[in-house]
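Marked as duplicate of an earlier ticket. Keeping the data here for the record.
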Amino acid sequence: MELIKHLCNTYGPAGREDRVRDIIEKEIKNYCQHIEVDRLGNLIAHVSPKPRKKSDEKIMLCAHMDEIGLIVTHVDESGFCRFTSIGGVFPQRILYERVIFENDVVGVIGVETKPETPIPPRMDNMFIDIGARSKDQALKMVQIGDIAAFYQQPHIIDNRLIGKALDDRLGCYCLIEVMKSIKKPSDDLYFVFTVQEEVGCRGAKTGAFSIGPKYAVAVDMTITGDTPGCPKMEMALGKGVAIKIKDYAFIAHPKIKDALVDHAKALKVPFQLEILERGTTDASVIQLAKEGVQSGVISIPGRYIHSVNEMCDLADVEGAIKVLTRVCEKGIGS
């Protein structure tokens, strides 16, 4: 579990994924035939079957390295930093939380106490306090355009992991472990650790165009419907890996969805069928690459998504690894 904790704890907002990429590259370099970083920053690893066959299909498996964050837009005369979001940040989930910048400056998110401040406050009512006593001092610590990630240590309680950036470092962890577990790949496999998913699935778009796969499976997190008073959704922690049917911008190809279900059943791995009304994944853009890609999604159920304290059940993570490993060894059609 130390690798999961290390990945989740590492600084890596959208557009600043370098540290996460370095960790992943060190973990996988001995388990693939070729590895490269493309122009946008995606890490692409190729695992090919031996011997190669003319019938080999290209299968792309992907997970995104980036996390949500904040970017400094203004520093006032007292040294407080105004900010806007990088990705889907919910203001009500970040107040009084700590953040860390790429240069390791740490701050806390505060809020105006004016009578007219709305409840709950908006992001433009908030600021980052880095402990500076003046604008000049603050500008020696951070600059306009510097990006902060949320700062929280991961913790495991009874096989449930709590921490920041589980979305989608869990997906990255799954792909790392799958690469280590494959005994005999069935097809040409491309493991793509993508950048900038949180701001529009940008890395997945260029990665899929470059590879031109026939099939693709994205690995990401999804929300649950198992907390008090939450919207009704057939998804719960610890009840199995989620196999997506549909989300806001994506409908799974029936062949891929059925193949994932069949693999889970063959392994006797518990699974849940996912319909997500809001939000999407890298698969939404991968399916549109070139002449089209038959795509599906494996999701890890999670609570408090896009907060500083996301939660998952590690049994669901292990289930995802097992299903994905079988996909790599048996193919989509088996």
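See parent ticket for discussion. The chain has a mean pLDDT of 94.
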